[in-house]
Amino acid sequence: MGKRYLLDTNTVLDYIGNKLPNNANGFLARIIDNEINLSVINKIELLGFLTVEQDLIDFVNCSNIFPIDDDIVDKTIEVRRSYKMKLPDAVIAATALHHNLILITNNTKDFKDTKGLEIINPHNIQ
User: Which CATH number is 68's domain given?
Assistant: First the structure.
């Protein structure tokens, strides 16, 4: 199986809002055509606004949402203890690590030191 990805909230918002460079849009379009993976935290963040556009609701509804199960809880605890990360970011990192997913995020500073977590910043795609 090829590479698989987890999209962070900021990546989804930038993609839907057409705020990414052309190369990043093409890269993400290929990923999205194949498989959209989100953490349940991303779903909460994306749909938790007072008003939510229908295209965002449709995007989330077409996504594979990884729940917080016991394995993710254990990995989140490990990540928080090791990196003193905010809880939502720790759940996202734990989800990516547990499922061997590459995290696509513009928020690289909060994840950069997490051992074993591969990160792609969509704003830096050439």
Answer: 3.40.50.1010
